Amino acid sequence: MLGTLKPQPADKILQLMGQYKADPRTDKIDLGVGVYKDATGLTPVMRAIKAAEKQLWEVEKTKSYTGLAGEPEFNAALSTLVLGDAAAGGRLSSVATPGGTGACRQAFELIRMASPEATVWVSDPTWPNHLSILKYLGMPVQPYRYFDSDTRAVDFGAMMADLTAAKPGDVVLLHGCCHNPTGANLTLPEWAEVAALLEKTGAVPMIDIAYQGFGDGLEEDAAGVRLIASRLPEVLIAASCSKNFGIYRERTGALMALSDPAKQEVTQGTLAFLNRQNYSFPPDHGARLVTMILNDPALRADWQAELEEVRRGMLTLREQLAKELQVLSGSDRFGFIAQHRGMFSRLGASPEQVERLKTEHGIYMVGDSRLNIAGLNATTVPILARAIIDVGI
Asked: pTM higher than 0.90 for the full model?
């Protein structure tokens, strides 16, 4: 049986990680992997996480299974963080998942179960794993224009023009904030226009929010999600705690579904059923830490303070890089870097230029020229800027 298996396409980011590790140069720079790093290159454990783990070690009495949907306290706390009061009225169903990827997978499974013929509209570009999972599940996919490669901003007119073709029951996948891989985000007025278009077409929004707190702030980053949730009758939301709590390896996330209150019980039961089919009970350690932090005023205050330090640090790096490039290029053509939000920006470089950055300068980024701002520090920003100009971007 196993002899019939065929090699699967290698993950390009994982390939890049391997190439970086094998590079003997001591001055190499990793801007490819999508994890937050501090100025020393470490992905730190946040202070509030450490404090919560100490508390949990003292009081935890069992490692028995949690519920199929995860602990209700976690689902309530994370849903409130993302949605505020936008999900009032008995519309919300929620389950814990293994990270944001697990939430996306469960959402796609739910879509396929509820409407097998539904087309999922996906921004061009999007996080590659969206497309990989959808392809694996055999679901119809339709790209919509999103990123203007000349201005490095959202091509909102083209996006709206494409989405007018979405049909009732189709699903429009949106990034809640800090768009991956471009860093270019919708404004709140644009979110309102998207909501109006979805109301008109009858398409269902699915929002992947993986970076809340990394862009303009916890509340600001959730504003578009909350606007959509308050206006559309059905909404799917995949949320991740990997980045804003720094618990990548704990695989902590949630899938939320907003529906007619009369359908909430069936929706919640279906989400629990899907959890059972895929992994039975979701992991609990990270979810429990998140719950403790969000429900304890002191822990929450410290977490928010550190998260704000992380956010402001990335903004400072963006501004420094944009300024360095302005000086070296004598133009404002790299100003978009300071305008983008989150960990990523897409430079608009050709594959050949990206290859030159790697081979000539030891600077590693994804082939589409997505760079991870959090992979920089004050010392490496000027090095990157000079390399960008040298390869002619």
From this structure: yes
